[in-house]
Design brief:
Elements (H helix, E strand, L loop, with lengths): L4 E5 L4 E2 L2 E2 L1 H13 L4 E3 L12 H15 L4 E5 L5 H14 L3 E5 L8 H13 L5 E5 L1 H4 L5 H10 L3 E6 L4 H10 L5 E4 L5 H6 L4 E4 L6 H12 L3 H20 L5 H9 L16 H13 L4
Parallel strand pairs: 1-4, 1-10, 4-5, 5-6, 6-7, 7-8, 8-9, 9-10
Antiparallel strand pairs: 2-3
């Protein structure tokens, strides 16, 4: 499974310090109605660093329960400690998830050999298909194309990579290094069109929390080679996609935007802080320009 298509990096709604289960159910129903391929609970956008282990596993269980087989569930189970990532991944498999998203370890800055051994150990611990996640802006290092190729050759259940380095040339490098059929997914909404044009086969989206139908249509146009239509959508929605990532650190703007639509509270967990009043007003103006509120 190379996870072709569009997958929503879900926000995690909170109320009074706890996961808001009913809001979470509603958010997932909205994604399914919007035609997405899958959901990705407890990734970066889901505030995974602030969830305890039991809570993290419970959110994955809820996602599997609420999706009820109507879309894929790719559980965010990565960590900067290999043992923790294995524990979370095995729990996700037991819960019935369809796959695992494995972020590049952050803070401890392993070598490429360390990355290889880390991901290889996780792959050996589970039968779930694994999507690697290279995001140097968060982890300070990237998964080298050669390391990804080595993992693809040695671990049959490492089947795709989410590329969030912001470089189309990285996609070109990955296409050259990886075997045919290995999935390459954009990790940046505004780069979806050029990434797919260069050989990627999907998107893990933040914006689809807010506009699932639009992002689904954009990805489908790209995958069908309908780049004239895709470019028109890209031009129309680029200011929104850009604003959701530039008005504050992700996931603050997207959670605030979804809350402005009335689908959840704006509650975040420290150290994330609410948007400033001026940025909230800029976001509100942006959403109104698209008739989203």
């Amino acid at each position: 499974m190379n996870f072709s298509g569009i997958h929503t990096a879900l926000i995690t709604p909170f109320r009074n310090g706890k996961v808001d289960t009913e809001a979470y159910r509603s958010l997932i129903e909205r994604q399914i109605a919007g035609g997405i391929t899958g959901i990705v609970p407890v990734g970066t956008t889901g505030e995974s660093p602030t969830l305890g282990t039991e809570e993290h596993i419970e959110v994955i269980k809820l996602a599997v329960e609420f999706a009820a087989g109507r879309c894929l569930v790719i559980a965010g189970t990565g960590a900067n400690a290999t043992a923790e990532a294995i524990e979370l991944t095995q729990a996700a498999e037991q819960a019935g998830a369809d796959g695992s998203l494995q972020v590049c370890p952050y803070y401890n800055k392993p070598s490429q050999e360390g990355l290889y051994l880390h991901f290889k150990a996780i792959a050996a611990s589970t039968s779930l298909p694994i999507m690697l996640y290279s995001v140097p802006g968060r982890s300070s290092i990237e998964i080298a194309p050669e390391t990804a190729a080595r993992l693809a050759a040695d671990c049959k259940n490492i089947t795709s990579i989410k590329e969030a380095g912001g470089s189309v040339d990285r996609v070109n490098q990955l296409v050259q290094a990886l075997p045919d059929g290995f999935g390459i997914l954009s990790g940046d909404d505004p780069l979806t069109l050029p990434f797919i044009a260069a050989g990627a086969n999907g998107l893990v989206s933040v914006a689809s929390n807010l506009i699932p139908e639009v992002m689904t249509q954009l990805v489908n146009h790209c995958l069908a080679g309908e780049f004239t239509e895709a470019l028109a959508m890209q031009k129309k929605y680029y200011p929104l996609m850009r604003g959701l990532m530039s008005l504050d650190v992700n996931p603050v703007p997207i959670k605030t935007a979804v809350a402005m639509q009335g689908h959840c509270d704006t509650e975040l967990r420290l150290p994330l802080a609410p948007m400033s009043e001026s940025n909230q007003q800029a976001l509100r103006t942006l959403l109104k320009s698209y008739n989203l509120i």
